[in-house]
Design goal:
Elements lengths: L4 H15 L4 E2 L10 E13 L5 E11 L5 H18 L5 E5 L3 E5 L2 E15 L1
Parallel strand pairs: 1-2
Antiparallel strand pairs: 2-3, 3-6, 4-6, 5-6
């Protein structure tokens, strides 16, 4: 079975994050085990690209820091952000990184942020 270009694009991005030491999922897992990056569609998931037959794919990378005191969790999240930025391949645009927020999961709260990224694909 062949993998479609959208799935392959998400998988390739996950591979880059994993190579830089970030545990990464390309779907929302049933149980979150931080530190973790979760790749999901952005609000502008697929839009028209710059040329014929090209499209831009927009993804969100939710970075979740391990549970700790606010100070330690904030430092850990900042480190995740820096590592993720370094792992993003050159053909990707880093569109934004949101301010940190409290993510509720597994009957706990984690400090997290969302990084919006996009790249051009051909379908």
């Amino acid at each position: 079975m062949t993998i479609n270009v959208i799935t392959q694009t998400k998988t390739n991005l996950a591979t880059e994050l994993i190579a830089d030491g970030i545990n990464t999922e390309t779907y929302i897992p049933p149980r979150i085990t931080p530190p973790l990056a979760i790749i999901s569609p952005d609000n502008t998931y697929v839009t028209q690209g710059d040329t014929f037959a090209t499209f831009r794919i927009g993804l969100l990378i939710t970075l979740v820091a391990q549970n700790a005191s606010n100070e330690k969790a904030t430092e850990a999240l900042d480190e995740l952000i820096v590592t993720a930025i370094g792992a993003i391949p050159a053909q990707w645009a880093i569109d934004s990184v949101e301010q940190p927020f409290a993510l509720s999961a597994n009957n706990a709260e984690y400090i997290a942020t969302r990084m919006a990224v996009s790249t051009q694909i051909t379908i």
